[in-house]
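Sequence only, no structure available. Ideas?
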Amino acid sequence: MPRCRATAFVLALAATLAARALADPPASRSLRSARRTGEIRIDGRADEPAWRAAEVGDGFLQTEPDDGQPTTAPTRFRVLWDDDSLYVSIECDDPQPPTALASPRDRDIDADLVRIDLDTTLDRRTAYHFGVYAAGQQVDGMHFNDDDYTSDWDAAWESAVAITPSGWSVEMRIPLRALRVPEGARAFGLNVARTLTRRHEESTWQYRPREAAGVVSGFGLLTGLDGIRPVVQLDLKPYAAGHGNCATATAPAAPCQTGFDFGLDARYPLTSELALVGAIHPDFGQVEIDERVLNLTTFETYLPEKRPFFLEGLDLFNLPLSSAYQIFYSRRIGEAPVSPLLAPNDTLIADAGARNIAGAAKVSGKTGPYSIQALTAFEQRAYARVLSADGRAGDQLAAEAAQATAVRVRRALSDSAVSGFAVTALDPFGFADRHAFAAAADTVVFDSDRDWNASVQVAGSLLAGGTDSVLLDGTVLGAGATGWAASTRLARDGGALNASFSADVLSPRFWVNDLGFMDRGNLLDLRPAVTVRDLHPQGRWQKASVRLSGEDERNFDGFLLRRSLSLDSSVTLNSYWGGSLSTTLFLPAVDDRELGDGTPLARRGAVRVSADVGTDSRQSLIASFSVSQQLSEGLRERKTAIGADVKFRPYPALEAGISVTYENDGGAIRRIRGAAGVPEMGGDPSVDLDPAAATRSWRLYLLAPQYAQSVSAILRATAALGPHLSVQAFAQLFTEGVAYGDPLRAVVAPGRSTVELDGLSRAGGADQPAWPDQRDADLSLNLVLRWEWRVGSNLYLAYAHQTSGAVSPNDHRLSLFGEAGALAGPAATRGDALMLKIDVLTAL
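Reply:
I predicted one. C-alpha cells follow.
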C-alpha cells in the first residue's frame, strides 16, 4: 500500500472511531423451556404436538454485516427436556435454498449453520457448544475463560436436518449425561446463533455488539428447568485395532510387523458435575500427523495437541498468562525420547519413537464453586533398536517408565474475580532419573462489562535427582534446582480502543519443560500495546484495526535480548476480501543462547515487513497469499518467506486445498562449534570445553554465516459421503537445506563480554573448522476414513506413509533439487502403516 494511502486509511479509521460512542449494553433475554410430554422423533421437523409447550425464541439481531440490525431471514427456536435429554428445534426461514456443503464432523466451513450454546452451571465463563450445518454434519466444542473457544471437546448426540416450505430446520437431542447439570438447577445460560453464508450474515438471539468483550458472560437465560436432574451412568467405549507396519532402513532392515491392540475408554459421573474418565492403552492411530516446519532458532517447535483423550478438558490448563510458559504441555506425555548413548562402534538402527501410554485417568468438572481437572498417565519404558559392534541387533533402553500428573483447580471469587492454581509432577521410575515439579497460582479480575481486566500469575519449579544439565544461556540445572516466575497483564479488551500492558519475569533456574513448555527462563519481558478497532461497516470496509505494540526483553545479567516496535493493520472490505500489513523495527541486541554457554553474541538491528491478502471465503475457489521480508543493518542478513494457499470445492461434498511455503534465510552468524581451546594459547581446538565452566577461561568459538532454504507443499482433501462418513487425506513434501559460508573465529577472555560481529576474523587451519551443512527431505502421507456407524461409535481405516532422506553435501551451496533428491538417496528410510480400528459406545 503506498504511504499516502496507508496514512489516509489510519486517519479515516481514527476519525470514524473518535466520532462514535458506544451504545448501552443490550438487555438480557430469557426463554421458557418445557418438560417433554409427548413423543419427539429426531427427523429435523418440529411438527410433533409436544413442541407447542415450549416458548418460541425469535427476534434475532445481526452482528455481521449490519451490527445490531434485524436479520434478513427470520429464525425461531424452542427447547424441551426430559429426564434423559435436552431437545432443541431451530427453524430457519429463507426464500433461497440454503448453502449446504458437506464436510467431516467438527470442520469449520463457510456454509449455513445453526448453533446453541449452554452455560449449564451459570458460571458465566464456560459453555457447551452444539452446531448443525444445513448439510447435516455436526460441530461441538467448549467455551472457556468467557471468550476462548476450543472445538476439541466432543460428545455423542443426535441431530437431523429437513428442508421445509419456508426454508430449512434442525432438531437436536443432547443427552444430559454429556452435560454438567447441577443439582437443583433452574436455569441455564443460553444463546442461539445462525450463519447465513451468502450474505456473511451472523445473527444471535441474545445480541452482543461486536466491540463488546466477553462471550459467555453475555448469554441470556433458559428457564423452565425446575425438576431437571443430572444423569449418572457409566459410559464404556472398548476398541479393537489391527495394524501392520513395514519399514526399510539401513541394514539390517526390520521385517513387516502385524499385531492387534485392545483398549478401553470409560466415563463415570462421580457427582452431577464431576466425572471420572479413564483410558487403558489408548490408541491414536487415526490422528493426523504433525506438519514439519523450518526451525533455525535455538527454541523448540510447539506442536498442538490432537489426541482426543488429552483434548477434552485441556482448556482448564490454559493459564490466563501463558505467553512465556505453560506448566502443563500434554504433548510431553507419549513424546519420543532422545536417542540413547551408544557404546563405541554401535549403530543406531531405529529410534524409540512415540512412547506407549499404558493407561491414563482424569477427573474433570465442578464440585461446589470449584472447577477441577486432574490427570495422570503412565508411560511404559521405551527402547531403541541398536546394531552392536559384533553385528547383532538388539534393544537398548532409551527412557524409563514414568508417571505424569497434572492438577488444575479454579474458583470464582465473585462475579468479577476468578482465582486458580495448578501443579504438575513427572516421576520416572529409574533411580537416577530426574523428577520435575511445578506449581502456579493465578487471579483475574474484571469489571461488570468485561471491558477491563487485570491478571496476576506466579509459578515455581523444583528439580530433584538426575544429573546436571547446562542450558544454552549457561544456566546449570542440578538436583534441587528451584526457580520462580511472575507475570501480570492489565488490559482494556472491549470497545473501539483497546490497550494492554504485559510483563513476565522468569528466574534463571525456572524450568518446566519436563512436563510443560517454555522457550527460556532468565527473562524480563515487557509488552505494551494499543489497538484501534472499527467493527462497523463503512463505505469501503466491513471492519478494520490498527495496532501499535512494543517489546523489551532482557536477561538477569541486564543484556538486551530484544527491543522492537510493531505497527500492524488489517481490514475486511465490503467484498469480504481481507488483508493485513505489518512493519516491525528490531533494534540491535544480543543473543545469550547462540554460543551455548551464556556468552552474548551481538545481533544487528533489522526491519521486517509482511503482508497478506485473502479472497472471499464464500466462493468455491478461495485463495490467500502472504509475503514477509526482513533485512538487517547494512543488508548483511535477510529472511524471506512467501506463502500461497488455494482451496477449492468442485462439489458440495468434496473440498481440496494446497498450501506452498518457501523460506530463504541468509547471512545470520551462527555457531558451528562451541567453546574450545585457543590454539595460540596452547589449547586444543578439537576438545570442547564444559559449557558450565567455559566462561571462566580463554576460549575459541567458530562461527559462520548461515544460509538456509525450505519448501513445504501441503495437500489436504476431504470427501464427505454423508453426515457420518468421511475420508480425509493429508500429504506434505518438505525439503530443508542448510549451508555455511567461510568459518569465522572469536577468541573471548574469561567472563561474559559480548562477541561483536565486526570483531570476528577468518578461521585458520589450526582452528580445525568444519562445515555442518545438511540437506534433508520428508514425504508424508496420511489417509483416514471415519464412519460413525452408531451415535458415539466409530470405525476408522487409516494409512500412513513416510519417506525421509538426508545427505551431507560438500559444495556449501543450497540446491532445491539436491535437497529433494535426498528422498531417493541410499540412506533414505521408508515406512508404511495400516490400521483398522472400531470402537463401541455402551451406556450402563
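Confidence is low (pLDDT under 50) at residues 1-23.
Hope that gets you unstuck.
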